[in-house]
Inverse folding.
């Protein structure tokens, strides 16, 4: 019979499970709120909102805006690209699309704000499961995320708060207009690729 250790000596603990390591990275290293999974979820509307679009449109947005877009985190979740934007931006999206005259068109452009959540990609240092969400441009531990995010600063004004983040001040209005244009382009290309049905 193997003797049991005294109650005052804690039993040895093994390494943290993978899910706990990921949660610890988000909560401790980044200070982001999470929700239990599986998979682990990031809560939106607190430190950031998320602008989501088809990946094809998202890659075109990143190419077109280039250095004009603040260098905030960008994730890929399946065939969807997710850009982190300033908290509160999701509330502005419907009115902004109307103001930009995109409101009457069906676009695959959505935003997650207060009460929303997205799947947490694994930290960039560790491989994730095949097909899982992943960071294209990961957040940097020890750095505040807010200054790196596109922000709504009013219709047509520069987002000068983003100047210190390495961007040239592209604001949320410009980002949304470019994203709507690219989402519409992708939708038209997909419609043209469909065979015509005659009855």
């Amino acid at each position: 019979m193997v003797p049991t250790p005294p109650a005052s000596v804690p039993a040895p603990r093994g390494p943290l499970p993978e899910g706990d390591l990921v949660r610890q990275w988000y909560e401790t290293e980044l200070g982001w709120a999470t929700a239990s999974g599986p998979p682990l979820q990031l809560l939106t509307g607190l430190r950031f909102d998320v602008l989501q679009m088809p990946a094809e449109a998202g890659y075109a947005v990143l190419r077109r805006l280039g250095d004009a877009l603040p260098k905030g985190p960008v994730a890929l979740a399946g065939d969807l690209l997710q850009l982190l934007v300033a908290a509160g931006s999701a509330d502005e999206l419907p009115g902004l699309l109307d103001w930009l005259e995109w409101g009457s068109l069906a676009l695959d452009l959505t935003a997650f704000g207060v009460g929303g959540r997205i799947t947490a990609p694994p930290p960039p240092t560790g491989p994730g499961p095949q097909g899982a969400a992943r960071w294209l441009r990961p957040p940097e531990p020890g750095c505040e995320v807010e200054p790196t995010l596109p922000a709504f600063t009013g219709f047509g004004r520069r987002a000068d708060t983003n100047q210190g983040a390495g961007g040239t001040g592209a604001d949320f209005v410009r980002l949304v207009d470019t994203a709507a244009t690219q989402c519409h382009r992708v939708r038209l290309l997909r419609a043209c690729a469909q065979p015509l049905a005659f009855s």
